[in-house]
Amino acid sequence: MNKLLIILLLTWTTTVFGQVKEKQQPSDFLPKGYVVFEKINGDLNKDGVLDCVLIIKGTNKGNIVVNQFDEKVDRNRRGIIILLNKNDHYELAIKNDECFSSENEDGGVYFPPELSIEISKGNLYALYSHGRYGYWQYTFRYQNSDFELIGFDEVNGGAVVDSETSINFLTKKKQKKVNTNENTEGGDEVFTETWENIKVNRLIKLSEIKDFYELDMSIY
């Protein structure tokens, strides 16, 4: 009888303390040495509830450097934390502390690509805009307990588009469009379109990406 009471007491205590320790706010998931750089809300698992994406940034003072213009800039890298909203608390979906470069990286003779994170129709989009050079975008979907890369789109050129590439990693197809109108000033491009099948051994997981700049989409 005494043993049964002890077991019940331990079970009750574990349950109570487990509930107390549940992380109720997104900031509860912030690792030591990081700050919230940006917060985005949207439904990522199609349950009708707004989930939370935190873009985080390191605070290592050793990464504050003087750039080529004699300005102090923060070169700490950025990462991402994705939290699923369980109504009374949040649940960690994935965390990747340093997959994004600093917003103050050296862009050379031009400004560095600008990162923006968006949520739309249950997908997570990581868009890099680079002015006159165009943009590229990664599309992730929550599946298999991670956010897997299901699409990639790239546009080369600004006002005048030179080429467009679109890859669907689920259908394993790649579309390439090349502008053939050399006299265009923008808006009247003429594209030739080609399709090809690609080989995809496994989908890239967001939690495993060490550096987005090291992702080579030209292999597909």
Give the rounded overall mean pLDDT: 90
Number of domains: 1
**Spatial order of the strands forming the largest sheet:** 7-8-9-10-11-12-13
| Oligomer class | single chain
| Overall 3D form | globular
Largest sheet: 7 strands, antiparallel
Helix content: under 10%
**Uncertain segments:** 4-20
Order of helices and strands: HEEEEEEEEEEEEE
Radius of gyration: 22 Å
Number of strands: 13
Distance between the termini: 66 Å
The structural class is mainly beta
Describe the protein.
The chain has one helix and 13 strands, in the order H-E-E-E-E-E-E-E-E-E-E-E-E-E. It has one domain (24-219). Strands 7-8-9-10-11-12-13 form a seven-stranded antiparallel beta sheet, with no helix packed on it. A four-stranded antiparallel beta sheet has the order 1-2-5-6, with no helix packed on it. Residues 4-20 have low confidence and may be disordered. Strand 3 and strand 4 (72-74) form a beta hairpin. 9% of the residues lie in helices and 44% in strands. The longest helix has 19 residues, at 2-20. It has 220 residues and is mainly beta.
